[in-house]
Every structure is written in C-alpha cells, then in structure tokens.
Amino acid sequence: MKLRIGIVTVSDRSSRDERPDLSGPALVEMVKSKGWDVAETLIVPDDLDVLRDTLTLWADSGDMDIILTTGGTGFSPRDITPEATRFVVDKLAPGLAEMMRAESLKITLHAMLSRAIAGIRGRALIINLPGSPKAACENLQVVAPVLGHAAQLLRDDAAAETGHIPDP
After folding, report:
1. Distance, CA of 50 to CA of 69 (rounded, Å)
2. Bridge partner residues of 66 (DSSP)
3. Does some domain include residue 163?
C-alpha cells in the first residue's frame, strides 16, 4: 500500500532559520525509502495554536494517511507537540507510543522523558516522533510495519482483513 505521509517539524529555531532542520529531511528520506509518498512537509514554531491548526488542516484534507511530527515531545517549557496533538485527535492510539518508548529504552534511558503520543483524527493517524534525526528515524522504524494496515483500517478498506493471519 502506498501511504501518503505529511511531516511537520516543530522547532522555534528551525522555523526562524537559526538552525537547519535535520529531522524532517531524515524522515523524508526514510519515508521515500519505504516506497511511500511525502505529501507535504512544513516547519512550524513551538506554538500550540499553529501546530493544532496545521494538524487539523492536514488531517481533515484527506490528502494524508499518516502525519508525522518531529520535535516538541520533551520536558522543555516550549515542548507542546503532545498537547496540540491531543487537542485535535478523536481517538488515542497508545500502543504506538508505548512501543516506540519501549524500543527506545533499549537504546537510551532518556526515552523515559518522551511525552510523545499517537492518535486518530478522521481517517488520518498522527504520530509524534522525537526531535533528533536519529531518534525520529528509530521510532518511525518501530511503528512502520503496522502503518499500512492502520491506513487500510482508517480508510475502511475491505481488503484490510483479507489474508490476515492472527499471530501465534
């Protein structure tokens, strides 16, 4: 299944061109390597209203199956990505964030400091990823195997259950 992916980098400094965005381009490269389409990319400041409005617009457009955010998931006072995401989603998808944290803990204890969430708005899945390129790609790699099936389910695709074999 060809997924349509939107990527939002959340960073005050990158949005002001004070620091290059490294995570967004790293995710673009990874998405393309999986044969998925990058529908849109954007850099926004750590501003709750701006991110909330962007996520709402993108999810409601019907142009994206998956929206990835990178950055703004930590403890800094300006880190607002999970809050903005929580404002716009209809349903949480906690298993994705739980699995990303569990796998990240095998690499760094700092994974315990991640406040990333994932959730559904309409037919789009929104997933918060860390702000570092390495961690963002590692976390996407953890959830990538289930994203096609998630998109099929969100599209209410009859083929979503075709050939589905339960795990042993």
Report:
1. 13
2. 5, 125
3. no
Residue 168 within a domain: no
Residue 121: domain span: 4-158
- The predicted model gives 62-70 an average pLDDT of 98
The CATH number of the domain holding residue 83 is 3.40.980.10
Q: Is residue 164 part of a domain?
A: no
Tally the domains of the chain.
1
What are the tens digits of pLDDT across the range 23-40? 999 999 999 999 999 999
How far is it, in rounded angstroms, from Cα 8 to Cα 54? 9
13: its two tokens = 């400094």
